[in-house]
Design the sequence.
């Protein structure tokens, strides 16, 4: 009896941080640092507290060293919730154009800024998904698109199988 191979889904934010191109992390944290200083400071405070350190341990470092430390710490399973929240804030506030284009392409109702109105669809239409991904890749960095799609796939238990399959099989959709 033939069985289809199981698609390995990245199901946690900390796993995404383990695989992501460091330049995307730099972009994310530089954006947060410039646009939501309180979130940046509270992220440092929370992550250092989780590691039983004082925030000054990180705050004394140069910005690139701070970002490297934050990235290293977000790769840990214990940082999963914080890491996912940071991704959500970054996309909701810093990458709204990408969210809006994705929602429009998929026919998902939203508030005009990418925040979904109502519930997410139980299934994603294969053709709309493929077309939307092509459009997004044409207009945005493919690694950013990939990051968004992986974070989006975290928004429902188990993710969407067709999206997970595309993320694992399409060479344009890599995090590294």
Sequence:
């Amino acid at each position: 009896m033939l069985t289809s191979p199981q698609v390995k889904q990245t199901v946690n934010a900390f796993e995404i941080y383990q695989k992501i191109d460091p330049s995307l992390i730099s972009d994310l944290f530089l954006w947060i640092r410039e646009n939501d200083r309180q979130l940046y400071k509270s992220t440092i405070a929370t992550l250092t507290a989780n590691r039983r350190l004082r925030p000054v341990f990180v705050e004394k470092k140069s910005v690139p060293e701070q970002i490297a430390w934050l990235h290293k710490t977000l790769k840990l399973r214990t940082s999963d919730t914080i890491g996912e929240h940071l991704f959500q804030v970054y996309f909701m506030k810093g990458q709204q154009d990408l969210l809006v284009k994705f929602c429009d392409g998929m026919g998902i109702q939203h508030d005009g800024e990418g925040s979904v109105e109502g519930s997410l669809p139980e299934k994603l239409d294969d053709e709309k998904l493929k077309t939307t991904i092509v459009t997004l890749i044409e207009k945005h960095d493919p690694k950013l698109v990939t990051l968004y799609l992986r974070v989006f796939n975290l928004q429902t238990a188990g993710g969407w199988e067709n999206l997970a399959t595309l993320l694992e099989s399409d060479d344009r959709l890599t995090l590294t």
Q: What stands out?
A: The chain has two domains: 10-94, 96-176.
